[in-house]
Amino acid sequence: MFEITGKVALITGASSGIGAAIASELLQAGAKGVSVVDINEGLGWEVSAELNKKFGNGRAVFIKTDVSNRRQLEDAFTKTVNVFNQLDIVVNNAAARGERNWEKNIAVNLTGIVTGTILAYEHFLPKYKSSEEGAIINIASMAALYSYPSTPVYSAAKMGVIGITRSLGAKQHYQRTKIKVIAVCPGYTSTNILQDIAAEDLLGDDYYKIQVDMMKLAPIAQPTTAVSRAVVEVIGIGASGSVWIADQNQSPYEVKVLCKRKSKL
């Protein structure tokens, strides 16, 4: 069981939605501090101020960052350890919508998470974690597990998130680092990405019609707090390389994405 009390977390995309809820939930669970990493400066300062007011001054720091920019993201890690002198948990949560600008979509939804994962895994957590074990949580999506014909680019990016999570989360890596890497796949959630999605966000009118039909069939979007609670639970109990679904206020449950191939490794 991973103990959250006294730990420090870096959370990307934390100025609103799921990321902000995770920051609050971690502090509620006893985390020593969190860094709110986001490109939205106005909301970022607002969220960090609210967290400090609720949990105590100095518990949260805002760091303006474009996660698609490797140098900026690395600077965010450095600033976090400069403030808190430790780093134990990294939550790669930042996301973007926009199927037509697939370069930006991939840059944020996949490359940003790959960068955050590798920086955490190979550079910062080994040096700055305060106990034997560290944790990386990558926020994927149900679109990584099932067919989402309205958003093929987003789905492809999130499938990549599952790939790096399962590969770096393999026992061969965990045994040498004691850093567990876990993916959490939220269901439909009340975030900026889901709300007010328009035809121009997708590849065309046909894709938008599919999205509308899918939204009619899908359950009402769950609150961000449901996902944040699931993330905190999974940080504690999840095994490295595991993939979890957090959907409709249920307890998070693990899913088997692919069968293991036979190997002598």
UniProtKB/TrEMBL annotation:
Gene Ontology terms, MF aspect: oxidoreductase activity, acting on the CH-OH group of donors, NAD or NADP as acceptor
Keyword presence, Oxidoreductase: yes
Keywords recorded for this protein, A-Z: Oxidoreductase
Record GO cellular component, one term: cytoplasm
This protein's record includes keyword Oxidoreductase: yes
Family designation: Belongs to the short-chain dehydrogenases/reductases (SDR) family.
Protein name: 15-hydroxyprostaglandin dehydrogenase
